[in-house]
TrEMBL record, chain A:
<dbReference type="Pfam" id="PF00717">
    <property type="entry name" value="Peptidase_S24"/>
</dbReference>
<keyword id="KW-0735">Signal-anchor</keyword>
<dbReference type="InterPro" id="IPR001733">
    <property type="entry name" value="Peptidase_S26B"/>
</dbReference>
<comment type="similarity">
    <text>Belongs to the peptidase S26B family.</text>
</comment>
<feature type="transmembrane region" description="Helical">
    <location>
        <begin position="15"/>
        <end position="33"/>
    </location>
</feature>
<dbReference type="InterPro" id="IPR019533">
    <property type="entry name" value="Peptidase_S26"/>
</dbReference>
<dbReference type="InterPro" id="IPR019758">
    <property type="entry name" value="Pept_S26A_signal_pept_1_CS"/>
</dbReference>
<keyword id="KW-0812">Transmembrane</keyword>
<feature type="domain" description="Peptidase S24/S26A/S26B/S26C">
    <location>
        <begin position="33"/>
        <end position="120"/>
    </location>
</feature>
<dbReference type="InterPro" id="IPR019756">
    <property type="entry name" value="Pept_S26A_signal_pept_1_Ser-AS"/>
</dbReference>
<dbReference type="InterPro" id="IPR036286">
    <property type="entry name" value="LexA/Signal_pep-like_sf"/>
</dbReference>
<dbReference type="InterPro" id="IPR015927">
    <property type="entry name" value="Peptidase_S24_S26A/B/C"/>
</dbReference>
<keyword id="KW-0472">Membrane</keyword>
<keyword id="KW-0256">Endoplasmic reticulum</keyword>
<keyword id="KW-1133">Transmembrane helix</keyword>
<comment type="subunit">
    <text>Component of the signal peptidase complex.</text>
</comment>
<keyword id="KW-0645">Protease</keyword>
Length: 176, 177
């Protein structure tokens, strides 16, 4: 067990160095994420598919890359990720009906590929359409399976704490 | 590389990088291909009625369209195209809304299934309600589009060739649909 021998050789300077190293990693990850948010225009540029309502295109655990450029108008057939007021979880469905006025105000109806009916039953009571402000982003890129880790960590929160704890311990103790 | 843990770690990291490289190669090799195809659309019958739209509560125009569709998607499928999502879209303008887009019918073709589409005299799958009562005498642009769902990569939306213009009847119809 050479991690303990490493521990014994640590002095104050090395502890500071390790902590700064750790902080560098965290802040670069944050910078990349915020940078992505700015370049794509979306508040959540990478989302994990959480339900099976878009099968066989997207399964639970797939990763979607979103953009939300205001200048790019929403059109029927696009896959949009939107939030319903009062709900935290965004929904990934396809636009099947769209009405746009001359001033640019647009309202649309969505439906999951794997669902029999449109989403009116999912919207807030009294809400009939999704509007541009509800849209978090539009799906542009796709990578399969990678998001399974997020789903596992959400379903088994003990796993999340265990993984984070182990990672933290590893980074702090290991010398390289 | 002298403990099981170190070996497992190296194996895991290597397989992760290889999988990422393969996904990227899938994306690069197929992203810039031309996915357009010729499509034949024909409309057999159009009827417009006016009734109360479910959920909404107002009386809106309801269009009913019977169409024929012919297309061959064999060249569109490649190692990176796992599904083709086809949707038949009607586009029109009303005094109330500058742009209206309604999906009349959609279909999923997975890789491996029959890529030839030969639909004869099919009804629209989804209710074609207008956001108002402006369908009579209006003009529709009906076209087929498809969404390429890759194994990994960009989600292309391709407009199909062969869109047709359709003049809607001037008055409400009474024929049974």
């Amino acid at each position: 067990m050479d991690i303990f021998s490493d521990l014994r050789r640590l002095n104050k300077r090395q502890v500071y160095f390790q902590v700064l190293n750790f902080a560098m990693i965290i802040s670069s990850a944050l910078m990349i994420w915020k940078g992505l948010m700015v370049t794509t225009g979306s508040e959540s540029p990478i989302v994990v598919v959480l339900s099976g309502s878009m099968e066989p295109a997207f399964y639970r655990g797939d990763l979607l890359f979103l953009t939300n450029y205001r200048a790019d108008p929403v059109r029927a057939g696009e896959i949009v990720v939107f939030k319903i007021e009062g709900r935290e979880i965004p929904i990934v469905h396809r636009v099947i009906k769209l009405h746009e006025k001359a001033d640019g105000k647009v309202k649309f109806l969505t439906k999951g590929d794997n669902n029999e009916v449109d989403d009116r039953g999912l919207y807030k009571p009294g809400q009939l359409w999704v509007e541009r402000d509800h849209v978090v982003g539009r799906a542009r890129g796709f990578v399969p399976y990678v998001g399974i880790v997020t789903i596992l960590m959400n379903d088994y929160p003990k796993l999340k704490y265990a993984v984070l704890g182990l990672l933290g311990l590893f980074v702090l103790i290991h010398r390289e | 590389m002298n403990t099981i843990l170190a070996r497992l770690n190296a194996l895991f990291a290597f397989s992760l990088s290889v999988t990422a490289a393969v996904a990227f190669a899938c994306f690069l090799t197929t992203n810039f291909l031309d996915y357009t195809q010729k499509v034949d659309i024909d409309v057999n019958k159009v009827v417009i009625k006016n009734m109360e739209e479910f959920y909404v509560g107002d009386r809106h125009d309801l269009g009913h369209i019977i169409f024929t569709l012919k297309a061959n998607f064999t060249p569109v499928f490649n190692w990176n195209c796992k599904e083709l999502f086809l949707y038949l879209m009607a586009e029109y303008e009303t005094p109330q809304n500058k742009l209206n887009q309604v999906v009349l019918w959609d279909h999923i073709i997975n890789r491996g299934e029959n890529p030839v589409v030969n639909i004869r005299k099919r009804s629209n799958k989804y209710y074609f309600f207008d956001d108002g009562a402006f369908l009579r005498g209006n003009k529709l642009q009906i076209s087929l589009h498809w969404n390429i769902i890759p194994n990994a990569g960009y989600l292309w939306r391709v407009p199909g060739g062969g869109s047709i213009a359709l003049d809607l009847p001037e008055s409400y119809g009474t024929s049974r649909i």
